[in-house]
Design a protein that fits this description.
By secondary structure, this protein is mostly beta strands. The protein has strands at residues 7-12, 19-28, 31-37, 40-47, 50-54, 59-68, 72-77, 83-85, 89-92, 104-112, 119-128. It starts with 6 loop residues before the first strand and ends in a 15-residue tail after the last strand.
Length: 143
Amino acid sequence: MGKALLGSWKHTNPLSPHYALCNVSYTSLFIFNVYCSFPVAPVAKVIPRTYTVTEGGNITLTCNTSGVPSPAITWTLIGQSGVVSQNSSLTVVNVRRPGLPDNMIQYQCTASNGVENPATATANITVHCKYLNKGVLKVDLAQ
């Protein structure tokens, strides 16, 4: 085996869309280690998928992912541009109602590793008014 085979390369099969990422290393005289991995499309799962929180409370969401190579994770708030986080866990402190009739906010986790399409999973968060169930609010309209 010549030195030309040492290192990493992508092995493709012209009859298949699949490929292997291979790495060859030299350990000692006439002994080589060959490691190949086969890419797997990303999968994403958000825990919990639905959550109810009182306004002003905190939530922590987790995005569990799998795939080869390991996917990169991004969190976004649906309806707004920009990435909120690039970690598997997302903690939102002092949650506020979004001003929508259903009081729901949605966070989306995207897992991407360059194999097929990125995978997405969404968490639906219902935000309750912090004054709800705190007693009866009396309003005197006669004045």
